Amino acid sequence: MLGDLGTYDALCRALSNATECIVISVDYRRAPEHRFPAGLEDCYAATCWVANNAEAIDARPDTLAIAGDSAGGSLAFGVGLLARDRDGPAIDYQVLAYPASDYAFDTESYEENAQGYFITRKDMERFWDGYLQSELDGEHPYASPLRTESLDRLPPTLVLTCGFDPLRDDGTELASRLSEAGVSTDHVQYEDMIHGFLIMLSDPELDRAHEALEEIGERVRDELQ
C-alpha cells in the first residue's frame, strides 16, 4: 500500500553493491486499488521475464535470487511458491526480511509490540484489509505463507526478524517451518531493531542496517557464486 521504486532506490543500490549482483526492483501494482493477487502476479511475471532475458540485462543466466522486506517479503515468498507450483523459473536463493507471513494478529509479538515501535498492530490490520479482497483470501497460502500445507522444495532461505516488531513471531515461525520441511534456512534476529530498519541506511547512527546488509550480501554471494 505504501512506497514505490524511489522509496527503495537507495536500499536496492546498496543491495547491488553488497551482493555484487544486478538488482531488479519491481513496481508492482499496490493495494487497495489492486488487491491480492495482482501485486503477487506482477512480481512473478517480472521474475519470469528476468529468468528468460538475463542476457538482455547483462546478467548471468544460471543464477537467480529473490528478496523483499515487510510486504515485499511476503510477495517474494509468494513468488517462490508460485515458481515451485508452476514449475519455474528456478530460484537459487531467497531473502525474507521481517515478512508479513499470516493474516492473523494473535502472536506474543503482536501483543508486546502493538504500538510504539514504528509499525503498529492497527497498521497491520489496515494493510491486510486493504490488500485482501475478502477474509477468505487471508487463508490462501500465496497471501499467508504460514498457511501453506507444505514448504518443501523451496530455495535456500535467509529470514531476518526484529525484536521490536509485531511481525517477529510470524517470521520466526516461518523460518522454523522451512527448516522442518528440509529447506536450508538461516534465521537472524536483530533483537534491538524495529520493523523497516533496512531502509534507514541514511541514518549515520543506525549501524545495524549496514550490518544486516553485509549479512545479506555475504550469504547471497556465497549461494550464487
From TrEMBL:
Record GO terms (molecular function): hydrolase activity
Domain Alpha/beta hydrolase fold-3 positions: 2-198
Record's keyword terms, sorted: Hydrolase
Signal peptide coordinates: none
Gene3D superfamilies, sorted: alpha/beta hydrolase
Pfam assignment, any one: Abhydrolase_3
Record PROSITE patterns: LIPASE_GDXG_SER
Family: Belongs to the 'GDXG' lipolytic enzyme family.
Protein name: Alpha/beta hydrolase
